[in-house]
Amino acid sequence: MTIKTVQIDAATFIPTDDCIVLRSLNGYPIIEMAFPFHEDTPNFRLTISQALHLRDALNELTKVRFLEVTKEDVK
After folding, report:
1. Cβ–Cβ contacts within 10 Å for residue 72, how many?
2. Model's pTM, two decimal places?
């Protein structure tokens, strides 16, 4: 099992620090996303495809681009 956390620092619209927890369960093709400090919010189970779509949406919204390896780079 692999667990990663994303810290969200307090800001004007978020009164206290918060975090998002991402967890992959070995042997299962899902990513579980949880908001541990929000008891009324259920955990989300994302398929690998949905998790990749979420990553792409975040990249697009933040204008972050990962470096792409081209065939010329591999030569």
Report:
1. 6
2. 0.68
DSSP structural state of residue 66: P
CB 13 within 8 A of CB 25: no
Strand order in the sheet with 44-47: 2-8, 18-24, 30-34, 44-47
The strand ranges marked E within the chain are 2-8, 18-24, 30-34, 44-47
3-class secondary structure, 11: strand
The alpha-carbon radius of gyration of the chain (Å, integer) is: 16
Please report the pLDDT score of residue 17 as a whole number.
79
Neighbours of 8 (CB within 10 A): 14
The three-class DSSP label of residue 19 is strand
Q: Which residue has the tokens 């969200």?
A: 8
Dihedral angle over CA of 52, 54, 59, 65, nearest 10:
0
